[in-house]
User: Which sequence fits this backbone?
């Protein structure tokens, strides 16, 4: 328990004392929502859906930049290698990363919600907010697996670029910035196959209190399994490379 | 190995390690007993770092076995008794030495008090400042404090004083000697002969992944003398010509009994001038040791 607390507190301190890290991951979703999500869509259901879109965007941001790019960079530091020689440090170190990711995700999503209460034309009610939070926790699973896979796939130098290269187009294609209904037909046909669209559908349906289309359910489940397998295989390869 | 040898704490036994087609270690064996201070020497790329990383549990041998306190290296039971200082002293820049030391000590059963570590390694002025902006010497002292934070029975020190100033090196030599005197064991790699000679009592030299020399410093010195006698002579007679080796206008001899050589030189009545007797460095003694041993089969670890 002490070990777990020590690792979590060390990890959180490192992240919190690095504004260059948490500004884009925690503040950007809230800021982007305030600039675009709150003002552009008309009042009513579109205004509410925008909150869901930026909440998903926040979840993905933590997954790609904190669990993805930042972990890839940390892992290549000699300090990480030294930490590996501390007795019993492996599990607490991994758990500390997960706890920090959950904490940062929660803050990022809550900030989007707070902004929606302040600036949104039609804020979510309490029940909608609770459903959105719950669905974000669920979406965080496939999102985290994508981030973890990315962190093992790329070198420290390549990871941030790769994260941008995958994350930003996926956010656009998934309809997190422009609602699917306003996409050009060609883009809309691609959109339905992206994990980000499927996550978006979960969030939007949570706000509307409806059930997402079965194909999104199956799609996201398939992505979860695929990214889980990919993350596991890449982690194994990385372990062999660094500690074999 | 004598029968009264203290307990074995670390062992590499016929360890071979390959990375792809590169063979970093080739059938390397090495024992370390409690209370020994071993300097691991060898040219760059000889396999020192690989040997250490196997002892640290960071690498697995391709063949052969490694053990630390009777356990597999890397297991918590083994690592609780070991302190390691990394060769590269990069620390998360957002943290302070006090925080890093507190974090380190949590992993060990009987850590040293943090205040004591801060004092011992001269970190008082920087204990609560963030590592960002620390000089190389300050980072090095922090790395050393972290190595000893868990009160280890074995300290693995890879280039412990690289980047430290002369005073810092002296301070560290004193700390390391006290640590060994109190029953601790250590493995050291270093480029500083004086540091090696001050701290270590045994030398293991590896080259091309093999042990090429293993002996106590006392034995190396006893066997290979301490003094270099050098003189000039315009008309060397048979004694000088046969005893000394000529280098330009000067004659040299390395001997462990310079008094006897000089006595005989005077008795020979041969003319000489500019007589110089200088103690030979450990570095030279080892070069000579290697020249005469010339095999990897001579392994002795008696004290």
Assistant:
């Amino acid at each position: 328990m002490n070990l777990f607390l020590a690792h979590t507190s060390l990890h959180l301190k490192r992240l919190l004392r690095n504004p260059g890290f948490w500004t884009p991951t925690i503040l950007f979703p809230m800021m982007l929502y305030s600039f675009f999500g709150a003002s552009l869509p008309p009042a009513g259901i579109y205004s509410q859906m925008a909150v869901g879109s930026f909440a998903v965007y926040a979840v993905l941001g933590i997954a790609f930049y904190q669990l993805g790019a930042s972990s890839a960079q940390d892992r290549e530091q000699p300090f990480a290698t030294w930490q590996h020689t501390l007795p019993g440090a492996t599990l607490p170190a991994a758990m500390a990363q997960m706890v920090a990711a959950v904490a940062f995700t929660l803050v990022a999503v809550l900030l989007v919600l707070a902004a929606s209460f302040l600036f949104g034309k039609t804020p979510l009610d309490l029940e909608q907010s609770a459903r959105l939070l719950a669905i974000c926790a669920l979406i965080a699973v496939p999102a985290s697996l994508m981030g973890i896979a990315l962190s093992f796939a790329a070198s420290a130098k390549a990871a941030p670029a790769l994260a941008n290269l995958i994350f930003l187009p996926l956010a656009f294609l998934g309809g997190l910035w422009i609602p699917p209904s306003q996409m050009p037909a060609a883009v809309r046909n691609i959109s339905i196959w992206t994990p980000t669209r499927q996550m978006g559908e979960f969030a939007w349906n949570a706000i509307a209190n409806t059930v997402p289309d079965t194909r999104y359910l199956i799609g996201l489940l398939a992505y979860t399994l695929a990214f889980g397998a990919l993350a596991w295989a890449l982690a194994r390869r990385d372990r062999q490379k660094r500690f074999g | 190995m004598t029968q009264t040898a203290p307990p074995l704490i670390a062992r590499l036994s016929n360890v071979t390690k390959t990375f792809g087609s590169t063979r970093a270690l080739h059938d390397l064996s090495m024992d370390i007993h409690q209370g020994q201070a071993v300097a691991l020497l060898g040219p760059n790329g000889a396999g020192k770092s690989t040997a250490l990383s196997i002892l640290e549990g960071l690498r697995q041998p391709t063949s052969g076995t490694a053990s630390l306190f009777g356990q597999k290296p890397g297991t918590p039971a083994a690592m609780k008794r070991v302190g390691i200082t990394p060769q590269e002293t990069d620390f998360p820049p957002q943290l302070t030495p006090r925080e890093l030391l507190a974090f380190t000590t949590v992993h060990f059963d009987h850590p040293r008090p943090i205040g004591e570590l801060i004092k011992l390694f001269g970190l008082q002025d920087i204990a609560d400042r963030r590592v960002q902006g620390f000089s190389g010497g300050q980072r090095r002292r922090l790395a050393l404090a972290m190595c000893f934070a868990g009160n280890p029975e074995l300290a693995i020190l890879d280039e412990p004083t690289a980047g430290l100033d002369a005073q810092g090196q002296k301070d560290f030599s004193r700390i390391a000697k006290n640590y060994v005197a109190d029953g601790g064991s250590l493995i050291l790699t270093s480029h500083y002969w004086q540091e090696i000679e001050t701290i270590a009592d045994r030398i293991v030299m590896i080259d091309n992944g093999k042990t090429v020399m293993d002996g106590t410093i006392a034995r190396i010195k006893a066997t290979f003398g301490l003094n270099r006698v050098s003189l000039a002579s315009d008309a060397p007679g048979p004694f000088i010509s046969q005893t000394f080796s000529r280098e330009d206008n000067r004659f040299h001899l390395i001997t462990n009994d310079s008094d006897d050589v000089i006595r005989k030189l005077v008795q020979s009545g041969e003319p000489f001038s500019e007589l110089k007797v200088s103690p030979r460095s450990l570095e030279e003694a080892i070069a000579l040791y290697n020249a005469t041993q010339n095999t990897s089969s001579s392994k002795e670890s008696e004290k």
Notes: Chain A has a mean pLDDT of 92. Chain A touches chain B at residues 2-3, 6-7, 10, 13-14, 17-18, 77-79, 81-82, 84-89, 243-244 (CB under 8 Å).
